[in-house]
From TrEMBL:
Family to which the UniProt record says this protein belongs: Belongs to the cytochrome ubiquinol oxidase subunit 2 family.
One Gene Ontology CC term in the entry: plasma membrane
Subcellular compartments: Cell membrane
GO function term, MF aspect, one: electron transfer activity
Pfam family of the protein (one): Cyt_bd_oxida_II
Name assigned to this protein: Cytochrome d ubiquinol oxidase subunit II
Keywords linked to the UniProt accession: Cell membrane, Electron transport, Heme, Iron, Membrane, Metal-binding, Transmembrane, Transmembrane helix, Transport
Species the sequence originates in: Actinomadura logoneensis
Transmembrane portions of the chain: 6-32, 74-98, 118-139, 159-182, 194-213, 219-239, 251-270, 298-321
Major subcellular location class: membrane
Lineage top rank: taxon: Bacteria
InterPro entries: Cyt-d_oxidase_su2
Lineage of source species: Bacteria, Bacillati, Actinomycetota, Actinomycetes, Streptosporangiales
Amino acid sequence: MHLQDLWFIAIAVLWTGYFFLEGFDFGVGVLTRVLAKDETERRVLINTVAPVWDGNEVWVLTAGGATFAAFPEWYASLFSGFYLPLLLVLVALILRGVAFEYRGKRDSARWRAGWDHAIFFGSLLPAFLWGVAFANIVRGVALDGRHLYVGSFLDLLNVYSLVGGLTTLLLFTYHGAVYTALKTTGDIRDRARALATRIGVATIVAAAGFLVWTQVNHGSAATAVTAGLAAVALVASWALTRVDGRDGWRFGLSGAAIAFAAVTLFVSLYPNVLPSTLDAANSLTVDNAAASPKTLGIMTWVAVLFLPLVLLYQGWTYWVFRKRIGVRDIPAYQAH
């Protein structure tokens, strides 16, 4: 295996980890305006992700940095061609992060309501736009002979990409609902499981449609297997929402569905990293978009040395904050 192939796999793993982890806290952010009945329940939901959301976002920073270093041509074409949607994602993530930190700084219902809307839209918008972006990456975009995007923003809003965006939004919201059932107690846990049951139906339909579309147009024998595994995991997770308990299994299976769906997209893409819809010769591949072998070699040694430490630290964080919380664990409101 060549180093450029190894780093394509590494980037796929980073994005898959990001969608698994950030997916549930995007879902929780959306549910703060859907599931929570009052301020106390909203604080319960926020506290389920408060210790981990910023660590989850490290995965996308690492994925972006790895793409820049390992595949500079891919990074340049992608981030210039997708400038507006990625800017919207960035602004949404910034506002969302600020909202988590600032909503409790003042004892004002109006103040908190404003930041709560930032959490909601700062979660909903990226959850949708990441699906739009990756659907376009798999489908291909208008790249010319210099590997420059020559289409428009509206070209990115094609039917396939919009279905992709709807699929990731529903998947992440469902993932957030089963995560909430895993991390909470009492009435809010019961309502989260019931909501997951209802959302799950729409999620299965959207995901099945998107994966079948992807398989027909871009698939192979390998993607048929990964897409099938994603479907089985999602249906099994949804079936368990009707069973009391099994919260960990539901969450693990919903995460597996997201992971297998992400793998399906990357396997569909390979050996391209950004296909051209104008001429196949204009497409970016793992070979013509890669950095020099020396650069890839240095990156590989750095990853081997530091990646285990990062994974151990994040795993320790989840272990420390593993306990469930409920309304009784939320003290009377105090600005801080």
